[in-house]
Amino acid sequence: MARVKGSRNADYEKERARLLEAVCQRVLAPDGAQASFRELAEVAGVSVATLRHYFGSREALLAEVMADMHRRGLPHLLAAATALHGPARESLRWFLESLLMGWRHGVGSAHAFGLTAGVGHATLGPVYVTELLEPTLQAAEARLSRHIAEGELRRCDVRHAALELVCPVVMGLLHQMQLSGASCRPLDVERFLEDHLETFLRAHAVSPG
């Protein structure tokens, strides 16, 4: 039976996913956010016209890359938000250690790409916030909200508390890894996380009794 005019081939989504995978691997390289549309097409093994057929523009392609990174990270984000790991101190320590582990296994590269592509860009900046930065902050909000409800942490603006918990860690990890600060101003990251957690708890933990 002839394909209806305007409909997509049966393998359209499969090929689109293949192209997206190839492009993702390129943009996660240290200079990936600067790759041109033509270079991304070459990496994917197709013409510029074909890549444009599947994604439209370079901007739309990079936005879809960030959305795909979000989709791939959903199981980890769900665990970060809801997995039970004891009282507040142990729970938040687990959360920060999980962030560190994820950062070392690709999350850091994803954030570096999103920041490089998004800073100063009216479209890609909000995409980075929505697809990569806010999901991590919202996972922290969910975890903090549970400990507040259980009376372990003081009532507060939970969004502000999530920013207090997450953002210094993200800056520290960017400093050491993506910005190569470990070579000129090394930091004991594990000790930093522990000190940061203690400072956070001094501000937010409910005193026993």
Automatic annotation (TrEMBL):
On whether Transcription is a keyword of this UniProt record, the answer is yes
Q: Does the keyword Cell membrane apply?
A: no
Task: Summarize which parts of the chain are annotated to bind DNA, as ranges.
Answer: 36-55
Query: For the HTH tetR-type domain, which residue ranges apply?
Result: 13-73
Q: List, in alphabetical order, the Gene Ontology terms for molecular function in this entry.
A: DNA-binding transcription factor activity; transcription cis-regulatory region binding
Keywords attached to this Swiss-Prot or TrEMBL record, sorted alphabetically, are:
DNA-binding, Transcription, Transcription regulation
Q: Which InterPro entries match?
A: Homeodomain-like_sf, HTH-type_TetR-like_transc_reg, HTH_TetR, Tet_transcr_reg_TetR-rel_C_sf
Q: Name one Pfam family in it.
A: TetR_N
Q: What PANTHER family does this protein's entry cite?
A: HTH-TYPE TRANSCRIPTIONAL REGULATOR BETI (PTHR30055:SF234), HTH-TYPE TRANSCRIPTIONAL REGULATOR RUTR (PTHR30055)
In Swiss-Prot or TrEMBL terms, this protein is called HTH tetR-type domain-containing protein
> What organism does the UniProt record list as the source?
Melittangium boletus DSM 14713
